[in-house]
Amino acid sequence: MTMNRRSFLKVGAGASGSLMLSLSLPGCAGVPTGYESDTGTWTPDAWLEITTSDEIYFTLARVEMGQGTYTGLTTLIAEDLDVPPEAITPRFAPAASEYRNPLYKLQLTGGSTSLATSWEPLRTAGASARLMLMMAAARVWKVDAQACTTRQGHVIHPNGIDSMRYGKLVELASKEIIRGEVELKPRSEWKYIGKQNQRLDAEAKATGTAEYGIDVEVPGMVYAVVTRSPRYGGRVRSFNADVVSTMAGVIEVVEIDRGVAVVADKYWRARKAQAALVVDWDYSEALSLSTDEVFASYREAADTDPGESERSEGDFNDAVEAATDVVEAEYAQPYLAHATLEPMNATAWVRDGRAEVWAPTQAPDLGQIAVARVTDLSPGDVTIHTTFLGGGFGRRLTQDYIEEAAAVSFKIGKPVKVIWSREEDTKHDLYRPAMLHRMKASLSGGELTGWHHQVVGPQILDWYVRNAAPAQYPWAPKFMYSTLGSMGLLLEGVATPKDMSAIEGAVEYPYGVGNIDIRHTHTDPGVPVTWWRSVGFSHNGFAVETFMDELAHQAGEDPYQFRRRLLANEPRHRAVLDRAAELAGWGEPLPQGRGRGIALFRSFGTFVAQVVEAGIEHGEVRVYRVSCAVDCGQVVNPRIVEDQIEGGILFGLTAALFGEITLEQGEVQQSNFHDYRLLRQYERPEVTVAIIDSNAAPTGVGEPGVPPVIPALGNALFALTGERQRSLPLKARA
Predict the structure, then answer these.
(1) Nearby residues of 582 by Cβ (< 8 Å), 6 or more positions away
(2) What is the pTM of this model?
(3) Cis amide linkage into residue 711, ω under 30° from 0
(4) Do 115 and 698 touch, CB atoms closer than 8 A?
(5) Domain architecture of the chain: domains with CATH
(6) Residue 658: which H helix or E strand, with range?
(7) In degrees rounded to 5, what are phi and psi of residue 713?
(8) Which residues, given as ranges, of the chain have pLDDT below 70?
(9) Rounded to an integer, what distance in angstroms lies between the CA atom of residue 378 and that of residue 473?
(10) pLDDT confidence of residue 491
(11) What sequence ranges are listed for the domain Aldehyde oxidase/xanthine dehydrogenase a/b hammerhead (predicted)?
């Protein structure tokens, strides 16, 4: 965040004279604060609540989908409040402007930003509350507050003997006023940051008490399943409601914007009735493309449109003219589904001019817009209860599943839970875009002198702005939603942030080359897309690092040393590259039938290098070992970093080996894990993760493990077979 602690902590006094610290925190004016005598609760800011009974509650403004925010962000506030993280109870934040992600101006969890954007604000909130508690105790003891200390939820008297519990001091603390800047604990005094490894949500998840969206139960709740058009854009023409509505347990059969919902008293009764539903679809405006036609349209666009320049340095054409060798290659990546283990679901209850929604969502404020779209309510009439998420990977940033539940509840006047089947989740996902890359490089005497990269494909914001733009202006009437979306696209890069989803990872090309030309040819075939774990870095990582490998071999140089030499001015890139090579024993002999490949990529501010050791067994690719080095700045929870990087590696390997969504006449061909495979336990390689010690500000770890592993595997297969694969998924070719 671009503010110092002094501007962050301009305090003011409320009408009663009690401290209103929250008024000066970014966007916290709407959160009730101060001391409540009826409950014995002190709420000094938007995140903390401390009671006279020494209960400490932390409002977690980011969701927990397995990436560790529940523990990581709690650790931040615990450190400067000076209490153990396990002494704090996290609670998921409601949809409210106070909890927006400052990078996106929306209340969403994504982009591996949770820790980076919370690093200073949460520590400052904890330190401020701690200081106010010390000031209150010092007033009682009539001593200097700076002479007091804290330990385990107590303020300690300067004599080192007397102490007072935080809970005993909350009412007095609420009347204190901080003047000036609050100091955060120096690194030398940290007790929990960099050391805390136990996950705070582990027990709840192990014992089944953690509530996911699919676990929600509401009194009087009914169940709905939705039959959607097999082809995107198809509309309902007619359906046999008379037959289905007479089946056991069926309550209603209703048409909504996305299809036909069968509502029943039990989930499996709804599913059984759905099997009898016959829908006549109007495909006049539906998608009709095949996968081959998608890539044909990309190639045609690339041939006719050189694209918008995204980075230009030197003169690439001059470099080509002077080159002794020019290398060209084309890379293609397919559509990818998210395959979250908890399929899409939401529970909605629309009644009495209000709506309540219980959902595993990555963007609660966008959920409010989704409900408003399909009801007669305004976003402010909608309460979103966020649950644990059984995986997100970007899929739950789009709120179509919440929209469906709200639409059904609005029509029937009952609390409704909508659950997608695995088949529905696969066939009606919003996918990682298929992308095409055209690469060209110039070499002179083995030296890389020019780099050209043309990225061809859609931008995700085109699909996401529908709800994102209205969420930034919740006061706007619904008739303006479409206009806001159109204006958001029109002013992209001017009044709104530039959409980097297609080019991120391409424009940050780190290698020392004098002539660089990077372009994006924007073309969209109409297949619905959204964010996917590591977004543009995932496809650009494959193109960039595979082509770098090709250039190294063309230059007759070792791929590791080739990269290393070109990173002379990039010490953090070089450090992770060296560490990964060291871990893997780069240059040492391998067992027969194995190849080794290397790749490096920086995404979301985090530097990651990986070496993959792979072979071919029984006609299938087998990955034996992945050695990884990561520099994510200051580490808060080391074990979570290791887990997330390893999870990203396995996620990336799944995509590299099996990930492919294909279309025929606009219909997705895959349906479940038998034809959209995940990496199985017995296929899991040995993974070693080394964390580079750093004093730099922390960056994200949920996604950066994905991009390098895909090209590293492809490079390993080339080292083994001598055949270069330029499209995904990778195949076993001896």
Answers:
(1) none
(2) 0.93
(3) no
(4) yes
(5) 5-207 (3.30.365.10), 213-284+355-419 (3.30.365.10), 292-335+433-460+499-721 (3.30.365.10)
(6) helix 638-658
(7) -65, -45
(8) 1-33, 491-496, 734
(9) 12
(10) 67
(11) 207-285
